[in-house]
Write a structure and sequence with these properties.
Layout lengths: L6 H8 L2 H11 L3 H9 L6 H13 L3 H9 L12 H6 L8 H18 L12 H11 L4 H25 L4
Helix pairs in contact: 2-3, 2-9, 3-4, 4-9, 7-8
Length: 170
């Protein structure tokens, strides 16, 4: 990523608080995360924005993390009409019905075990890779899984922040 200001970053920095808050909520559904990033504007560089996002993700409480995860649909079931979740989960788009059914079952088992949606940075992953990840992670302890979820959320947030500051308007 670039280390200098971009037109998209300048627009984000200059946007009204309400518009910036709404844009940040599309990146991460945690209101604490969004408030932290909003309070630190303006950002001198895209990297500074990423660093602030990473720091805010690291500071999320269990409740904040739950709020963030609630904004993510299960793998294989993107939110209808939501181009972001459809794009991020495109690896499941061409999956066989068998794989889609297996992912649904695994998602439900994972959610029963951990009490929240299976969260993975799905961008660039195939359906099989996501299936293998949930199979592997379902055996984790809650503590291990919380650490992995936080790391995966950080990856997703960075990708979405990059798109935010590349877009034409905030």
């Amino acid at each position: 990523m670039t280390s200098s200001p971009t037109p998209g970053l300048a627009r984000f920095n200059a946007s009204q608080d309400s518009a910036a808050r709404a844009a940040l909520h599309e990146v991460c559904a945690s209101s604490a995360w969004g408030s932290t990033l909003l309070a630190q504007r303006p950002y001198a560089t895209v990297e500074a924005l990423f660093d602030a996002g990473d720091a805010a993700t690291a500071e999320l409480t269990a409740e904040d993390l739950a709020e963030a995860m609630a904004g993510h649909p299960p793998i294989g079931r993107p939110k209808p009409g939501d181009p972001t979740s459809s794009r991020e989960q495109s690896g499941m788009a061409g999956a066989s019905e068998e794989l889609k059914t297996e992912m649904l079952e695994l998602n439900l088992s994972y959610q029963d075990r951990f009490g929240h949606v299976f969260l993975i940075c799905a961008t660039g992953r195939t359906g099989e890779q996501m299936r293998d990840a949930v199979r592997e992670r379902i055996g984790n302890s809650p503590e291990q899984e919380r650490d992995i979820v936080r790391a995966e959320l950080g990856k997703i947030n960075r990708i979405r922040l990059a798109r935010l500051v590349e877009e034409e308007s905030v």
